[in-house]
TrEMBL record:
Residues 1-12 have a biased composition (Pro residues). The keyword Lipid biosynthesis does not apply. It comes from Streptomyces plicatus. This is AAA family ATPase. The chain crosses the membrane at residues 60-79, 115-133, 140-159, 194-213. The keyword Cell wall biogenesis/degradation does not apply.
Amino acid sequence: MTAPLTPPPPPNERSSYQGGPVPPPVGAHAVGTPPGAPYGTHGDHGEQDGPGMLTEVRQAAVAVVAVALSGVLLGVLWWKLAPSVPLVGEVVGDRWLVYLKESEGEQSVGVDGTFTLLALAFGALSAVVVFLLRRRGGVPLVVALGAGGLLGSLLAWRVGIWLGPAQDVVAHAKEVGKGVTFSAPLKLGAKGALLAWPIAALVVHLGLTGLFGPRDPEPDPWPAPYGKTSA
């Protein structure tokens, strides 16, 4: 007596794997691939999320130039708004001596304070403009914002000195005459004020990016059970 023979499986249930790639199910396509595109591709042009590194570097270069050139306006405002430091020239023997008219005056401190406040305002304004024009940010843009702010401060410092009173105080005293009050040249005593612009720009830009910048979608902490789909 022999055991009954097991019938062979139907042809559609036999494995068709011959060492080649397994075709995807009918109607399935890769995530991000439009219907009709070859399986495993991401579109015809291979587009990436956001601009490439070359585009970011170009945008950063434009930001450096624009922010630095705005230092000209800062220099003009510093020259206009900074308090005047009064000097007086006297003749002792055959020599001219120049001294402060008010030895206890605080005009020199006001000159540094005016530059610092203006630089802080320009730093905050430049950060807001850059953020509004380029919300995605990026390391090159942040570096450009800090470098442009520092260059803008240096440019404003030199422009203000150039527009201000003459640097040769003895020649200026001789020109106006003995005992006549004249303004001292613009001088930035606290060189640390040059860092006010880049520091303010980076802090404000960081705050804007943290509050209003684009965010990645958060993953679902409770995935649906295997084989089930959410309604």
